[in-house]
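Support request from a user on the community tier.

User writes: "When I paste my structure tokens into the form, the page sometimes reloads and wipes my input. The last time it worked, I copied everything first. Here is what I submitted, just in case something in the input itself triggers the reload:"
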């Protein structure tokens, strides 16, 4: 028994099949578009991946810079631990220590106020900061 084309049941079945096929095709296209959009712009999409790679490069550069600074500071600490001249230089620069008989001159920045501009720019200080030898002498 062959299905005839003029049979109304066959025509209705054929029309229903075409409608189902079109609906399924439309759903597949919509699903593909949604998946494609999610792949590009979603939470873990390509744009987010590119942003994370850029952030990773910046952080790696910062880590490299901090590692170099850390190495430089470790070398400075090692140098201070082993070299007495370096310790003396550091004490003179940071703590303003002097040896007995030395004079420290502090230079002040020029003031914007005309009244302050007439005051002396350098003020000598004698014995203001005791040096290591003055401390050991019981001063």
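"...and here is what came back when it finally went through:"
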């Amino acid at each position: 028994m062959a299905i005839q084309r003029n049979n109304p049941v066959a025509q209705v079945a054929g029309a229903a099949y075409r409608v189902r096929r079109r609906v399924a095709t439309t759903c597949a296209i919509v699903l593909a578009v949604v998946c494609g959009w999610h792949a590009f712009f979603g939470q873990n999409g390509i744009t987010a991946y590119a942003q994370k790679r850029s952030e990773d490069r910046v952080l790696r550069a910062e880590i490299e810079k901090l590692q170099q600074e850390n190495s430089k500071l470790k070398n400075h600490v090692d140098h201070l631990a082993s070299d007495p001249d370096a310790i003396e230089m550091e004490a003179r620069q940071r703590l303003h220590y002097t040896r007995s008989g030395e004079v420290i001159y502090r230079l002040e920045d020029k003031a914007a106020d005309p009244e302050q501009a007439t005051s002396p720019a350098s003020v000598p200080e004698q014995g203001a900061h005791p040096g290591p030898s003055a401390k050991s002498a019981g001063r």
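Agent notes: The reload is a front-end session timeout and is unrelated to the input. The radius of gyration is 42 Å. Residues 131-139 have pLDDT under 50 and may be disordered. Escalated to web team.
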